Amino acid sequence: MWEELENSIKDCTKCKLCEGRHNIVFGEGNKEADIMFIGEGPGADEDAQGLPFVGKAGQLMNKAFQGLGIKREEVYIANIVKCRPPNNRVPEDDEAEACLEYLRNQVMLVKPKIIVLLGSTALKNILGKEYGITSARGKWIEKKEIYYMPTWHPAALLRDEAKKIDFWKDLKEVVKKYNELNVK
Ligand code: URA
User: Fold this and answer.
1) Atom of ligand 1 nearest to the CA of 39
2) b/e burial code for range 42-79 (CB count within 10 A of at least 16 → b)
3) How many CB atoms lie within 10 A of CB 178?
4) Which of 44, 75, 143, 145 has its CA 20 to 30 A from that of 112?
5) d(CA 142, CA 152)
6) Number of independent structural domains in the chain
7) pTM of the entire predicted model
């Protein structure tokens, strides 16, 4: 199934983002992870390496992981769109829609218990346009036996130091929920 999915995306031309990409950023991590992180879309570093969250935002996320005892290789990390939007703009609705099928299949295969939604784009495309990141962040939303935790996108922490405290708090909740779910 994973092989099929990875093959199906290899030469994807379902939206215009294929025109500028160097690499498709499929996602990486533990394919049986209990925790999945979903970001927005690849930036320049990710596009160059074909891997998610390897640039500045990713380094900040890695630091938080380290501090909280989350092993990056034990979680699964993916994005709403798999190809870099030009100038890191927010993916447009048609692009997200075209790409979401891949992500839905990834979620189906990983079967995470917890999904961390990194920023507004992930939140709106996964849970619905009616959600806003400022009011939704830090609160659990349970849907179809998956616990969703919306939080700031790590890139937002680079622009606003104060958000680091929230981000840390939200990820701490994630660790707590993970521990609770795994002793049941
Ligand atoms: N920002 C994202 O949303 N995803 C990445 O993979 C990198 C930066």
Assistant:
1) 3
2) bbebbbeebbbbbbebbebbeebbeeeebebeebbbbb
3) 16
4) 44
5) 18
6) 1
7) 0.97
- Six token digits for residue 129: 């346009």
**If you measure from the C-alpha of residue 82 to the centroid of ligand 1, how many angstroms do you get, rounded to a whole number?**
10
What's the CATH code of the domain at 119? Answer: 3.40.470.10
C-alpha 28 – ligand 1 centre gap (Å)? 12
| Residues in contact with 16: Cβ distance below 8 Å, sequence separation at least 6, in sequence order | 95
Amino acid at 65: F
- Left (φ > 0), alpha (ψ -120 to 50) or beta: where does 97 sit? alpha
pLDDT tens track for 109-137: 999 999 999 999 999 999 999 999 999 99
The tokens describing 175, both together, are: 């660790």
Show the domain range for 145: 2-183
